[in-house]
Specification:
The protein is α/β, with parallel strands linked by helices and about 260 residues long. It folds into two domains: about 5-160 and about 245-250, 3-Layer(aba) Sandwich (Rossmann fold); about 170-235. The chain is about 50% helix and about 10% strand. The chain has 13 helices and seven strands. It has a seven-stranded parallel sheet, with helices on both faces. Strand 1 (about 10-15), helix 1 (about 15-30) and strand 2 form a beta-alpha-beta unit. The relative contact order is 0.11.
Amino acid sequence: MNISNVNLKVLVMDTDYYALQAVNSYLAWDRRTRVTFLAESALDMWAELDRTPLAELPDVVIIDADHMGGPQALAHAVQRLRGRIPNVMVICLAQLADPALVEAAANARVRGYLLKGEVRLQIAWAIVYGINHDFIVTTTIAKVAEGMFHHRIFHAKTLPEPRQYPELTDRIRQAIKLCVVEGMPANLAADEMGISLHTIRGYIKEGYRIMEAYDENEYPVDMTPQERAFMRFTAFADEAPPDEDDEAEENGKKPKS
């Protein structure tokens, strides 16, 4: 994958301030996603969309499904978003797996229904994964949906597992998480881990080497090692290409039964 080939403008709406900031920080690390606005309520979201020029409207809107006012209100919000931005990709984030909301989202043809506690710092990878699939879900949503007789839910794609790096020890992984994911200065991370500054720098260097060895993606030449490390650390495991049903849905054709 050439990372430079994806460039998505993203609006995020979440009533939880801390969740909103977390999603913003995770998306900011990934150059494929550019956050254009953070809305703490549906009213803020609509006000922003009303004043945004056509050329600057988001490609992706992430909405807090739990606080849209129930299944009917969620469906209406998605319909309204499509009226403003015809080709928008809508992704629902939620704290809980509510079957009624999942079904409403599927009927409204959102691109994904994801639990915050499962997607977490892989949100940018989830958005990009959604480009090639009709409907994506996290693991718990997939389990809840097993008894739901709905075409899109039945054929939903569960997000892949995180990419595995067998050579990353727990200590190296902890150093990468502190210094790369959380952005902690090396000296503070060293204190947190009870090791020397020299040792933690060695962990980081080794972690970068290991992750690079497992990654075939192409990155912009001006991307920093820290940016690349974040993307590699949060990447999904490699997966097979989209199946025939996905390709048929994207082309507006009826999938094979």
